[in-house]
Amino acid sequence: MAERLRTEEMIMNMGPQHPATHGVCRLILTIDGEVINDCVPVIGYLHRAIEKICENRTYAQCIPLLDRFEYVTSMSCNWAFALAAEKLTDLEIPERAEYLRVIMAELNRIASHLLCIGVTAMDLGALTPFLYTFREREFILDLFEMTCGQRLTYNYIWVGGVSKDIPPEFIPKCREFLDIIDEKCDDYEKILTKNPIWLVRNKGIGIIPEKMVHDYAISGPSARASGVNFDIRKHDSYGVYDRFDFDVPVFFGCDCYDRYRARMAEMRQSARIIRQALDQMSDGPVRAKVTMNFKPKPGEVYSRIENSRGEMGIYLVSDGTKKPFRMRARGGSYNHLMAIPEITRGLKIADLVALFASLDIILPEIDR
Amino acid sequence: MELAPVFSWLYDLLLSVGLGITLADIVSLVGIAVIVFGFLCVAALFLVWWERKVSAHIQQRYGPMMTGWHGVLQTIADAVKLLQKEDITPNAVDRRVFFWAPVVTFVCAFAAYVVIPFGDGLIVSDLNIGILYIIAITTFTIISLLMAGWGSNNKYALLGGMRSAAQAVSYEVPLTLAVLGTVLVAGSMSMNEIVISQQGSTFFGLLPRWNIFFQPLGFVIYVIAATAESNRTPFDLPEAEQELVAGYNVEYSGMKFAMFFLAEFINLFTVSAIATTVFLGGWNGPLLPSWMWFLCKTLFMVFVLMLFRWTYPRLRVDQLMEFAWKVLLPLAFLNIIYVGVLAKWLNW
């Protein structure tokens, strides 16, 4: 009898088109009923050869490409590249530009976390929080549109500063946003944090132990939810982050729930940073004197910043011409996706969806 | 066949104009079927629109606004669009099973309305096993979901079908036990008798004598199990969009999809109508005509279920099973014991 009841494994393709993979990721699942026995991620459906194209562009022309590298937080991508190019040229950045960069990157971080939390809720079947978080994200996108005319791919942070100064109505509008965001975060917490269904779906699901964080180089909020206190803004400070007073929220649950809480806490910290930046900012130029076709000195450089999904690094090699000799980028999502097979073994399909959403994987960053 | 008074006049009318008994039987039955069918189709169209409106307002949107007053004709426009669509049958499906699955769903969804009392005397046939009949007939829906899942020859659909079968079988038990409490009180399984047993008032005339006030636990169990029965969030696993794309109906398009869709909303109306009948006093109520009371209470129940759907995340499949067998079932037994004690020893 037991022999006759033996179940058979089934191979299921999750993706490339699937609502829960946030783009075009394909996961080949070996499932036994609902239990995942194996998971093989297949990537490359969104490959645009951004790193190669950059070798044929001047440094200034690379910036719009980096917008597309990871379009949810374009500002940070711009910044990572600008930082690398500036290191090569020893450029001195005007102070106002540094503050503007911080404000934009932190606003972008809030927008990205809002997207992540909304989408996580949607993936777990609660459609309503998604529309709530998008309402606030809309506010941020309006601020960006006001500044640089774009809502998704900004091309705002340039080598040597930022493309243009903010309009006068930006600051009051931004303060208005900062006033509501804490309250709205409380609202999301009311819907989700204590919700019993949310708790059983997230608590203890998709455990990433601290050792795995180091093994796979998992970074960002996902690492901080596993008890790793590491934030590049704090521990390898860049820009003017050393002038602000903010905390690095660290949680020790290692599960989807704490990754959600880490993001929630980070949004509040980001709002705190922006408030201080608005207070400290003084008038002045926003761009250093640098020509469009500048030639950095030969050499290589790696610069990294804290993106909303982890470490965003740019490795540049210059041969002294106006175009980079080599450009390589590192995004957090790639490492996160590679860790998924090990985490998912033995989980249910529904858990995989929760895990995928909680790691905030964005496919363009993986495929480039 | 024994018909309720409101329909027997139709029968008498047909006899008086000179039709034979057999012919009068057939014509009156078809007439009743058309009336119920028409009402339910309109109800389903309305519910689809209403659900979209409720969800939109919860989510700070407007919902449909362009077709008619506040988009009230939107569902009709959608239905017309679905009718015009090409009816695609994928090559690898089991054709017979694939074809019959939506039909079975549709028929089962409608068949339950034979015994639903829409008002005082407004019942197609007051079977003496009314509630048992409804529970039996709604269980058939599971078979159609399994058929759709198996016949589609699609792994997502299969998983959806499997989930729906497991879920429906589990939640059928607490649901039946919750309803059983009211049958104990009424002493009959006839839907009309159950409604009549809830007439009058209690607690010194302060509250109507509805079952919900005596068996709040039973009501809660029923609502939870009914949400699971009608495959709605937080129990919408068979069609969990983010896991199974669309679940059992992933391969269906055009009119076949529309049949699944309409049946789902009719099922929503059915579980609300049963809740109204067995727990909320059915068509009992002062001042307004009885059918209006029935509609108001049923639509209120529908609204409650809609609020669930747009507020809660979804459970996982094993958590769902655990909840049914480890929480709901013991509670349902407790409820039966409690009702039995009340009914037998306290002579209530």
Please, could you describe this protein's structure?
The complex is a heterodimer of chains A (368) and B (348). Chain A is of the alpha+beta class and 368 residues long. Chain A has a single domain (52-330), classed as Cytochrome-c3 Hydrogenase, chain B. Chain A has helices spanning 50-54, 59-69, 74-89, 95-123, 128-148, 170-191, 196-202, 210-215, 221-224, 232-235, 256-280, 332-344, 349-358, 363-367, and strands at 10-14, 26-32, 35-42, 157-158, 161-162, 299-307, 310-318, 324-330. Chain A is globular. The longest helix of chain B has 38 residues, at 21-58.
Tags for this model:
heterodimer, A: 368 residues, Cytochrome-c3 Hydrogenase, chain B, three-stranded antiparallel beta sheet, 14 helices, 13% strand, B: 348 residues, mainly alpha, 2 domains, two-stranded antiparallel sheet, 2 strands
End-to-end separation of chain A in angstroms reads: 52 Å
Average pLDDT, all residues of chain A: 86
- CATH fold group of chain A: Cytochrome-c3 Hydrogenase, chain B
Helix content of chain A: 40-55%
- Biggest chain contact: A-B, 30 and 30 residues
Q: What percent of residues of chain B adopt helix (DSSP H or I)?
A: 55-70%
Main β-sheet of chain A: number of strands, strand sense, barrel status? Answer: 3 strands, antiparallel
Total E-strand runs of chain A:
8
Radius of gyration of chain A: 21 Å
- Taken together, the total number of domains of chain B comes to 2
The fraction of residues in strands of chain B falls at: under 5%
What is the overall shape of chain A? Answer: globular
CATH class of chain A: Mainly Alpha
Q: pLDDT under 50 segments of chain B (min length 5)?
A: none
- Structure class of chain A: alpha+beta
